[in-house]
Amino acid sequence: MILIVVKYRVRPEAVDRFLDEVADFTAATRAEPGNLWFEWSRSVERDDEFVLVEAFRDGTGEAHVNSDHFREGLARMKPLLAETPLIVSRSVEGEGWDRMGELTVDA
């Protein structure tokens, strides 16, 4: 699978509405056949930073970045950003989350 983590620094005046502004892009991406997950979080260290963790089945990432909703989502997002996002994008084995062996919780 392709595992991607992106950090978005958002302009102060856009922080409170950022997730609403990317809601259509988020919904369209989650509906893609190759999408495994597309999850937004807000940094606990920086009020103006949002973190996106996303994953796609092998061979489906190109369709994502070539989609209309991807181009539209980035165009809508760009004026809200304070700087160019930081990204890590890697191919990794598997197609989902694994349990953490170093920290097992007995229920």
Automatic annotation (TrEMBL):
GO molecular function, one term: monooxygenase activity
Gene3D superfamilies membership: 3.30.70.100
Domain ABM: 2-89
Amino-acid biosynthesis in keyword set: no
Protein EC: 1.-.-.-
Enzyme class: oxidoreductase
KW Transport (keyword) present: no
Domain of life: Bacteria
Keywords from the named record: Monooxygenase, Oxidoreductase
Protein name per the record: Quinol monooxygenase
Protein species of origin: Nocardiopsis tropica
Lineage, highest ranks first: Bacteria, Bacillati, Actinomycetota, Actinomycetes, Streptosporangiales
